[in-house]
Amino acid sequence: MNVLAILIPVSVTLGLAGLGAFLWTLKSGQYDDPAGDQARALSDRFDDNPPS
Amino acid sequence: MSMACPACAGMPPPQAAPGDRAPTHVLHLPDIHCAGCIAGVETALMARSGVQEARVNLTLKRVFVSAPGLAATDLVETLAQAGHRAQRLDAARMGGEERAARDLLMRIGVAGFAMMNVMLLSVAVWSGAAGATEKLFHLISAAIALPAVAYSARPFFASALGALRGGRLNMDVPISLAIMLATAVSLATALGFGDQSGWFDAALALTFFLLVGRYLDRAGRASARSAAAELAALEAPQALLIEGGTERIVDADNLAAGDLIRVRPGDRIPADGTILSGRTDLDRSALTGESAPESAGVGDSVAAGETCLTGALEVRVDRAGRETGLARMAELVATAETQRTRYTGLADRAARIYAPAVHLLGAGAFVAWLWATGDGWRSLDVAISVLVITCPCALGLAIPAVSTIATGRLFRAGLLVTSRTALERLSEVDLVVFDKTGTLTSGTPVLEGMPNPVDLAVAAGLAQSSNHPVSRAIVAAAKERGIEPRVPDHPAEKAGQGVEGLLGGRPVRLGRKEWIGAKGDAAVWLRLGDAPPVPFTTRETLRDEAADTIATLRSDGYEVALLSGDTASAVARIAATLDIDRAEAGMTPEQKVAWVEDAARQGRKVLMVGDGLNDTGCLAVAHAGIAPGSGLDAARSASDVVLLSGGLPGVVKALRTARQSAARMRQNIGLAAAYNAVSIPVALLGLASPVLAALAMSTSSLTVSANAMRRMR
């Protein structure tokens, strides 16, 4: 059962990483305009000259 | 914010950090729908000097522009040149809804994370972990669950506390009780005070599912509210103020009594006032519903909301801003609105029965078990299982899930639902009342009959130099019959009278009968030199879809009525064409309201469909209201559904969808009740374990959501 000592922190850390990732997506406004992002994904307007 | 992936890095800079440069203008773009439109709008705006940033939000159909020093009208013009229709939005009128929604999403995220982790640990316990392992797992669960519950379930606790302070019970009281009791007892178990099952996963699952329900509900309400705010923010009225001989543009709200304003032909009059100089025809249809323009001159009073058609005016403001008749009417509507929001929806009615029942059941279970076994911990365990299992996960999702899906479906069909209980109220409607002018008819007149081609050619030649609706009808009729207009020399428009000119040396006149010197009933008269005057009569055109819509409504089992302020003959003709039996003519707005209230007293559920200020009262009093998007602001904000595109068939669509979604809501409540009917006896008998509770909760929530998503026909 010693393996639990490793596995439990690992599982909790993974969970926290997932939560962190979700909160980051939320904070960076990735749910603000789903329809627009969907349309922009295929735009090649900035392919040659990406804004820094 | 740094972007890691190349696709994101390829995005234009404005999106980089929302909020680091606040947009100075927000424009509404009703027509955009694809990547090409986004690129077109952004490039056009960025190409204009003075624009620092332009970012389109396709979901909201808005563009956020940062251009200090530029006026919104400049931007609208820039877009118009690029071929995009844009309307100015008053950003101040749209509140910060987004923060609240984001806060709720964050709580959902935390609850979801905690639920999954605790569930993993719980599965181990359920499948037989015992002794020290079980104890350890309980402690870890407690460490995850306690902060998560404290954070995520705060909205429920706050709402329950508020209700209890006010001496009421709401749905959040049993929810909070279940979550807190379950957490507290599990904590006691984890710390070794008792030997009962752990309910952490149940407490978290409860929080998670209920938060999702709450989020959907909020999203629905927020979109309804922002739709209404958006409509109100459209067309922020402006006025041309005359000050010491110069003119400048000001907001209509900033006018004061005694100010002098100029009104140009085609302008909407921004305030109530008296005409000091000038003469014009006024389109009063917004206020009276009458399509025929009225002439007005020096000394006559004008009211906000009317449109000046032909001549320029100088007007002394008598009442402005909130004082105008238009604003007072809007306030009356707002009062009527608050009465309608007291309508108790299905969810509220269910909650009212539900909340006390759950408490009685839980308390009853505890007392009965204590009396039968004398084991306090065991009794508490049973009471918690009853509370958790009866907790309205499914009930919380049952209605918001359906209304979110139905509202989204209607939005895609060009219908904007602006009120939260609109669908339920629409589903109860049995009498549909239409307004005539502007709703069933297009509101623009067409020429009636077949005038002599020579007369028509002369009339059209004169009419070309006027913007009056009747003039436009004459020009259109000539064009349709392929008659070349004979343009007179020196045509001049006499505001409020007509047009005159010289044709081959003879004076010709087209205008109202007093000016021409004719006797009879016609829209305008034409006089050619000394020849007897020739009458031109007009009639309104029915909208193309009107007949179909009325017929479909009747076959769907609705009774249809027509209320109009127009003359009896005009109304009778329309009613006969559309086969409507109940038609009332010559009604004032007050009479219309009385008619609708009377029908309501007879137990009818009235749906009002209208567009003008004269219908606004009706829209507000009726059980439900629908207004076309072309209608007046006040009418749109008093209605539950706005027809943005698609026209009258939208009424049928809205009613059908409403009926279906109300049926779906009742089904969902039935489903949730059925789950409870099975699980409550099990819980009362003390047979419900945390596994069973978790299963019942998830399956019932999934069933209800799946039923909501089932295709509507």
UniProtKB/TrEMBL annotation, chain A:
Classification of source organism: Bacteria, Pseudomonadati, Pseudomonadota, Alphaproteobacteria, Rhodobacterales
Membrane-spanning ranges: 6-26
Record keywords: Membrane, Transmembrane, Transmembrane helix
Domain of life (superkingdom): Bacteria
Any Pfam family: FixS
Protein name per the record: Cytochrome oxidase maturation protein cbb3-type
TrEMBL record, chain B:
Subcellular location: Cell membrane
EC numbers: 3.6.3.54
Enzyme class: hydrolase
Gene Ontology terms: cellular component: plasma membrane
Origin: domain of life: Bacteria
SUPFAM superfamilies: Calcium ATPase, transduction domain A, Calcium ATPase, transmembrane domain M, HAD-like, HMA, heavy metal-associated domain
InterPro entries listed in its UniProt record: ATPase_P-typ_cyto_dom_N, ATPase_P-typ_P_site, ATPase_P-typ_TM_dom_sf, ATPase_P-typ_transduc_dom_A_sf, ATPase_P-type_domA, HAD-like_sf, HAD_sf, Heavy-metal-associated_CS
Keywords: ATP-binding, Cell membrane, Hydrolase, Ion transport, Magnesium, Membrane, Metal-binding, Nucleotide-binding, Phosphoprotein, Translocase, Transmembrane, Transmembrane helix, Transport
Transmembrane spans: 104-130, 136-153, 173-193, 199-216, 353-372, 384-406, 669-685
Membrane topology: Multi-pass membrane protein
A GO BP entry: copper ion homeostasis
Start and end residues of each HMA domain: 23-87
PROSITE patterns registered for this protein in UniProt: ATPASE_E1_E2 (PS00154), HMA_1 (PS01047), HMA_2 (PS50846)
Keyword Transport assigned: yes
Family of the protein in this entry: Belongs to the cation transport ATPase (P-type) (TC 3.A.3) family. Type IB subfamily.
Name by which UniProt lists this protein: Putative copper-exporting P-type ATPase V
Taxonomic source organism: Palleronia abyssalis
